[in-house]
């Protein structure tokens, strides 16, 4: 199966038939694609930290059903992950844009 030539022509829109004009254009296209992938990865990591924080709170709310040692670990780890997610937010807003951090 032949892979189509993808050329970034404007803000994430690809022209499927046109090859990059120069090696520099090709490098720029690959860098743009890498930035898009990096943003997606960072946003997913942030969402995962927030989900883990919420899961820790849920475990703590379970009360006596969950052994005390596990509740304590869930509370500490959940709180720590939530704090780390909050620390990421200003950096993400600069790197990914102001709409990247959603609750």
Description:
The chain has 103 residues and is mainly α. It has a domain at 44-98. The protein is 66% helix and 7% strand. It is built from 2 helices and 2 strands. The protein has helices at 23-61, 68-96; strands at 7-10, 13-15. Strands 1-2 form a two-stranded antiparallel sheet. Strand 1 and strand 2 form a beta hairpin. Helix 1 (23-61) runs antiparallel to helix 2. The chain is elongated. It starts with 6 loop residues before the first strand and ends in a 7-residue tail after the last helix. The mean pLDDT is 84.
Rg measurement, Å? 21 Å
Tell me the number of helical segments per DSSP (H or I, 4 or more residues long).
2
Q: If strands are numbered along the chain, what order do they take across the biggest sheet? A: 1-2
Percent strand equals 5-15%
| CA(first)-CA(last) distance | 41 Å
Query: Average pLDDT value?
Result: 84
Biggest sheet layout:
2 strands, antiparallel
Query: Care to count the β-strands?
Result: 2
How would you sum up the global shape? elongated
- What order do the SSEs take from the amino end to the carboxyl end, as H and E? EEHH
Decide which structural class fits the backbone.
mainly alpha
Please give the structural blueprint:
Layout: E1 7-10, E2 13-15, H1 23-61, H2 68-96
Antiparallel strand pairs: 1-2
Helix pairs in contact: 1-2
Keywords, separated by commas or semicolons:
66% helix, 103 residues, two-stranded antiparallel ribbon, mainly alpha, 2 helices, elongated
């Amino acid at each position: 199966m032949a892979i189509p030539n993808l050329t970034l022509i404007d803000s994430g829109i690809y022209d499927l038939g046109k090859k990059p004009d120069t090696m520099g254009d090709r490098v720029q296209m690959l860098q743009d694609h890498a930035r898009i992938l990096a943003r997606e990865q960072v946003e997913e990591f942030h969402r995962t930290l927030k989900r883990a924080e919420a899961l820790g709170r849920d475990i703590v709310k379970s009360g006596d059903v969950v052994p005390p040692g596990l509740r304590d670990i869930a509370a500490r780890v959940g709180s720590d992950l939530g704090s780390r997610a909050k620390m990421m937010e200003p950096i993400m807003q600069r790197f990914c844009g102001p709409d990247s951090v959603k609750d």
